[in-house]
Amino acid sequence: MNTTSNSDGLRHIRRLLWAAVAGSALAFGGAALWRAFTPPDLPAPYVTGEAAIVNAYTLTDHAGRSVTPETYEGRWQLVFFGFTFCPDICPTTLAYMASVTDILGPQADRVAPIFVTVDPARDTVDVLAEYVAAFHPQLIGLTGTQAQVAEAAGNFRVWYERSEDATAPDGYLMAHSGYIYLMRPEGGFDSVYREGDQPPEALADEIFMRIERDERS
Amino acid sequence: MKLFLAAACIAAFPAAALAEVVVSDPWARASILASRPGAAYLTLHSDADDRLLSATTPVADHVMIHTSETDADSVTRMIHLDALDLPAGQTVRFAPGGMHLMLMGLAGKLDESASFPLTLTFERAGAITVEIPVLGVAATGPEVEP
Predict the structure, then answer these.
(1) What pLDDT digit, counting tens, does each position of B24-71 carry?
(2) Rounded to whole angstroms, what are the CA distances from B36 to A130, B4, B105?
(3) Chain B contacts of A87, Cβ < 8 Å?
(4) pLDDT per position as a tens digit, A84-97
(5) Is this prediction's pTM over 0.80?
(6) Structural domain tally of chain B?
(7) Cα dist from A72 to A186, A187, A195, B126, whole Å
(8) What is the predicted ipTM?
(9) Do the beta carbons of residue A194 and residue A178 sit within 8 Å?
(10) Class at the top of the CATH hierarchy for domain A59-216
(11) What's the DSSP call for residue B29?
(12) Quick check: B66 contacting A, CB < 8 Å?
């Protein structure tokens, strides 16, 4: 008797527990379904007119001088991040920047083509001096400490990474974004280009137009 | 009629029967620093399915087949290929910004207007040696600077 009522009570409790499990499963499942089928209430995309690219750095140029963007103030600046161990994209892009500089002719004095290394451990001042001179006498090479380079790349929103590869020289390769940034004479960001997207004449034309527009205003 | 077509095909494409790989437009960019890797480019065309297994040259310790991959964020990575597939009848072009042969451990600088031999080894076509002319640092292809 006692045993029966006891097992009756247990059965009752067991039923209650199962009911609770079923109830919560339904509640959770329902909530999940509700979330899945209701559009998320996210804020609308916020678009600003100015790109979040900031022309800020303290680096060392290929002549060993400490420089900041103010060093090049008054000139348009073409800025490209790369590294000298890069056998393909970097020389192609730097040769392209050299061609743009040549096409600009007499106006080239108003443009500073700048190459910033993302591999400062190997791209020292001396290495950069020899490297940039091979492309164009006006090409400026910038290096620094790892921290200075990381800060510069961060300000330009340039992404780079070091990937270990035992077969590569010194055991690593660098991956990097291949943009050329056009910065205004007062230092602000103007636009971004890629080497393969237009012939050098087209980029030189864009810079000509901007120089003329500045002269008119 | 069928016989005529077959005959016409053999007449039009005599190389098809030989299954050969044609290597054209080879060039390398002059290197700036001897301690940095160089890059060589060429165009491959095979009549039959084949694979490029390796490349060697006396001017470099080793040659790597690299392809560049640029993702949606414009980040470019070099991808090292152990072998490169050459589907029959398809032209595979190495060019700046795409595929290149990376020359590592150069014996010296690759000077403009010099040239060096490069041996390509294919799975079926065997070894083919081509002479690679060295063009200027600003060259983008053999058609720009002859």
Answers:
(1) 999 999 998 888 999 999 999 999 999 999 999 999 999 999 987 777
(2) 12, 56, 8
(3) 29, 36-39, 66, 100, 102-103
(4) 998 888 999 999 99
(5) no
(6) 1
(7) 9, 8, 22, 55
(8) 0.77
(9) yes
(10) alpha beta
(11) E
(12) yes
